[in-house]
Amino acid sequence: MPLPTSPVIRRVRLGAELRQLRRREALTLEQVCDRLGWASTSKLSRIELGQSRPDLADVLDLLDVYQVPTSTRDALIVIARDAATSRGWWKALGEMGERQRTYAELEAGAARIVEYQPAVVPGLLQTPAYARLRIAAGATLDPEVDVDAEVRARAVRQEVLRRADPPRYTALLAEAVCDPGEMPVEVWREQVRHLVALTGLSNVTVRLLPRGAVAHGGLHALTPYSCYAFPDPADPRTVMLEALTTDVRLATVADVDRYDRLTEALLDAALPAEETVTALARGIGD
Question: pLDDT tens digits, residue range 47-73?
Answer without folding.
Answer: 998 888 889 999 999 999 999 999 899
